[in-house]
Amino acid sequence: MPIPKGPHLEFEQPVVELSMKIEDLLKNSEINAADVKDLLAKKDSLQKKIASKLSAWNRVELSRRSGRPYTLDYVQHLFTDFTELHGDRYFGDDPALVCGLARFNGQSVMVMGHQKGKDTKESIRRNFGMAHPEGYRKALRCMKMAEKFHLPVITLIDTMGAYPGIGAEERGQAEAIAKNIMEMSVLRVPILCIVIGEGASGGAIGIGIGDRLLMLENAWFGVISPESCSAILWGDSSKKMDLSETMKITAADLFELKIIDRIIREPLGGAHWDPEQMYRILKGVLTEELEALNKLQVDALVEKRLNKVTSIGQFAG
Amino acid sequence: MEWFRKAKSGIGTLIKRDTPVDLWVKCDGCKEILYRKELAANKYVCEHCGFHFRIGANDYVKLLMDEGTWQVMDTNLRSTDPLKFTAKKKYKDSLHDAEKNTGAHSGVVAGIGEIKGIKTSMAVMDFRFIGGSMGSVEGEKIARVLKRGLQMKIPSIVVAASGGARMQEGSLSLMQMGKTSAIIAQLHKAGLPYISVMTNPTTGGVTASFAMLGDINIAEPGALIGFAGERVIRETIRQNLPPGFQRAEFLLEKGMLDMIVPRKQLKDTLASVLSHFI
Fold first, then answer.
1. Contact call for residues A154 and A192 (beta carbons, < 8 A)
2. What is the extent of the structural domain holding A45?
3. Count of domains in chain A?
4. Residue B16's pLDDT is what?
């Protein structure tokens, strides 16, 4: 397995060093895989040990780790015949949120998700995965199209938030997100939502209301990022680590709070250590989930979704 | 000692008022010094510049509902601090302080009353309760108001005043956006009117859900309305924001509102609009 490119996270260092050692040994033609068996086992147990001790903040770091698969990586590896659809028909096209027709196991679907960039140039073009209102309006246009042609909708969530800028406010960021949430709650086709990386606030939920909300093991989802929460309370990001615990933003926390329906396991060390395995895992989960949703009659499907969406919350009295 | 006891109870009621208790008040808009009694008679709107002072949730109930028609509901709902949230201040303590200051268990007053004889289900948010932020209880109360509108086939109104989703309840508060908006979708389907009234301020997850989804969106003059906070935007784009940015007048110009209505005309306007729908 190739070692993921850096920059490495601090807690990954011991595994990276060990992996490099193994790689170096294997370069020697007199040493074969059987000779490094013990070292490989050591690497595995080290990774397992690190995985068992990950803090909430470590998972936030993993969710942003370069080399982690983004929306279009999943689209390329899990789907066939992807045809990207552009534009909201009102103002423009938003490369921070991609939408398109595709086939999943042969079934036509509408797939969409936030898209981050892999280098500086693409990151800027994709606005770091922070969508403008036109992104959310394009998403809604495509969802309504999916409804018209009876195609299930699959959304991949990976955003630091909807973009906070002058143009975004002028063009109604709040209205665009509000309308998506409202329409998704009653859309008459199955909707599967998966948090693949970051799931921050309105930007995430703007494509995040559906029949099932799934989450990768090292993704985070919440009302605000730990840094922003720290900035609001203390004026700087210094308390982000402690806050990320109390904010309950990890998949395990959210499963316990019944916010998400399922945690999707990642390869050892995180999705970036073995993207191919990540694609296989997610494909298996989506196959299972979509099969279950395909079986429901549309009225029952929407009623079930409405019940789910309107019953979230914890209170007394 | 009878006189002494009387004075004490008198002071007690004064403290519970949610508006300035001083005899004179300085206007935040034009800095004019205003006589409090006259200001109150003018619905807490400056007679010189029209600046709208912030008023409490119950003041809106009094302002909008016909006398003697208001039935308050769901007053017993309270937060359970589901995340056991502890940061600079424990959420439990914030809740306790807010309850003490407002005499209520949540930042939403909900009920049914009549607006010029039109039976209406209404929720009003109270900014004094943790910045009017939307937690599970606030979301539930607004959802119930909308549901009552749906079940009783009467109009619904939400008067918003909120900093957005309540950080201390994390994703549970985020999901209240879905909860409230899903019922508005059903109101649309049932052909029932829902009017959103935005007061100063209406921001974040509240704007990005039920506040922007009215058949009619109304704002009070000068109200701050937006998705992202001013500081976040300034820090993101690193430039100054244009004057009047995210104010009601800006939103009207950009097409996000149907109208800006001064507080004194709010009741008449609501009754007039609703009369077309029922």
1. yes
2. 10-53
3. 2
4. 45
Report pLDDT for B19.
53
Please check whether residues A219 and A122 belong to one and the same domain.
yes
Residue with tokens 């299930």: A152
Q: Are A218 and A265 in contact (CB under 8 A)?
A: no
Q: Are residues A190 and A272 in the same domain?
A: yes
Give a yes or no: residue A131 inside a domain. Answer: yes
Question: How does pLDDT run across A305-317, given as a tens digit for each residue?
Answer: 999 999 999 999 8
Instruction: Tell me: do A85 and A162 sit in the same domain.
Output: yes
- Judge whether B71 and B41 are in contact, CB under 8 Å: no
Determine contact, residues B203/B162, Cβ cutoff 8 Å.
yes
Give the closest-approach CA distance of B137 to chain A in angstroms: 6
CB contacts < 8 A (A, B): 191
Length of chain B: 278
- Chain A: closest CA distance from residue B109 (Å): 15
pTM value > 0.80: yes
Q: Which of B264, B254, B57 shows the shortest CA–CA distance to B157?
A: B57
Written as one letter, the residue type at B55 is I
CA B219 remoteness from chain centre:
11
Cα(A305)–Cα(A312) distance, rounded to whole angstroms?
11
Q: Are residues A246 and A112 in the same domain?
A: yes
Q: Which of A174, A224, A309 has its CB closest to that of B208? A: A174
The answer to whether the CB of A84 falls within 8 A of the CB of A100 is yes
d(C-alpha A74, C-alpha A21), whole Å: 31
Specify whether the CB–CB gap between B210 and B217 falls below 8 A: no
- Best residue in A132, A143, A182 for a mutation probing chain B (most B CBs within 10 Å): A182
The model's pLDDT over B109-152, given as tens digits with 9 standing for 90+, comes to: 999 999 999 999 999 999 999 999 999 999 999 999 999 999 99
* Residue contact B179–A315, C-beta within 8 A: no
Distance of residue B209 Cα from the nearest chain A Cα, in angstroms: 4
From A20, A37, A53, the end of a domain falls on A53
Are B254 and A171 within 8 A, CB to CB? yes
Q: A243 to chain B: which residues are within 8 Å by CB?
A: 87
CA distance A126 to chain B (A): 15
CATH node for B55-277: 3.90.226.10
A274 and A183 part of one domain: yes
| Position A180 in a domain | yes
Residues of A in contact with B209 (CB under 8 A): 177-178, 181-182
